[in-house]
Request: fold
Amino acid sequence: MLTRTCQLFLKLRQFCDKIPFLYRQSDCQAQTVKEMNKLLAEVDPQIVEITAKDLARQQNSLMLIPSENYASRAVMEIQGSILANKYAEGYPGERYYNGCEFMDGVESLAIERAKALFGAEHVNVQPHAGTQANMAAYHALLDPGDTILAMSLSHGGHLSHGDKVNFSGRYYNVVAYGVDAETELIDMETVASLAEQHRPKLIVVGATAYPRHFDFAAWRQVADSVGAYLLADIAHIAGLIAGGVHPDPVPYSDVVTTTTHKTLRGPRGAMIMCKEEHAAKIDRAVFPGLQGGPFLHTIAARAVAFKEASEPEFKTYQEQIVKNAKALAERLMENGFRLVSGGTENHLMLIDLTIKYEKLSGRQAADHLEDAGIIVNKNTIPFDKRKPKTTSGIRLGTPMVTTRGMKEDEMLHIADFITEALENRQKASIKKRIREKVQEFCAQFPIYEYLN
Ligand SMILES: *Cc1c(COP(=O)(O)O)cnc(C)c1O
Reply:
């Protein structure tokens, strides 16, 4: 009898079989090339088996981590292609390697599409990840020891915004802003007075766990009032911005950094957008400042993702993410949970567990939910009394379930699964039953068409 994982394994194999010449180049006489063109499943069944297990996990669980997504098959196809074979240090038209005539086409296409999608003056698509994009922006605009004003990690900022365990906290003088204790919103007057007091050279606006909009025009005003550069880090919300459901930072910011794998739904990677006046400095900071050869295979995948993001369906998708987040948030509140800031305007929300379950930490809650097939993050809440490894909150978001085609009605079920699992967290048999229900529920929404 075939187990479910085993069936998925076979599907994954079929999927590999269907991938065109990029995986199976036409048969060639040379023995070595023949060897190389064996299917992955023949070469390395161990890694395929692990992948098949994770495919099953991704299909069978409710993935509510707001920074993750299911990239399209097209994105993954090109990412696993022959483009991974080429070195191309430098930029289109000025490479340090020969044989880059087609690589230039890939990178230029990615750049042009990103510019069109976001209305940016200049784009660098080479940063390997979001942290590297921020590092490059700092490297371009600052000297070590300069002052940065950014959101504290414990209130929703990112490690690369000056946390003391990160390079950014070691090399720069970081002043942190947080949210207001009452409203749990960022108070622009507080930010303005911190700026006035510390005269930062750079202000960073952006977060990993802030459920509200950023008013970028107001941030520009603060930056101008002290002559600071403004960096908008839109790693989480880039898709919402491209889809027109979140205010746009591009006109107001000197530099905008983003990952490409979160709401933007592309491959793992990042990019930097900036005003023309910073273009040369940003490019030099990425290469040769911080990186060597670009990953052309993922840059090509970024290009594909930008094309997908410029289609009308992508806007509809982003609108649905926000509608779903609202529906999920409202139902969770009806079920007695307290959400930080009282709700959400974007793709994510933070549950403050201390109100409903005083003794339950975010870490424990996330583990109990995983037992029930629901994947969320533990996350600090503003003014959290617990440590970052324990936390008093969980963070959840709707990008992945929305990619699967779920709508508001499904969000009600998800909220109820969460509630039931946490209410019965000490009862393994009930959590197991919920896990089975979650799996059945997920079966109606296959993550990839080959799982149909
Ligand atoms: C995810 C994220 C990053 C960094 O992304 P990595 O690709 O993991 O390095 C940077 N800034 C913000 C706000 C993020 O949410």
Summary: The two ends are 20 Å apart (CA to CA). Residues 316-451 form a domain with the Aspartate Aminotransferase, domain 1 fold (CATH 3.90.1150.10). The chain has 18 helices and 15 strands.
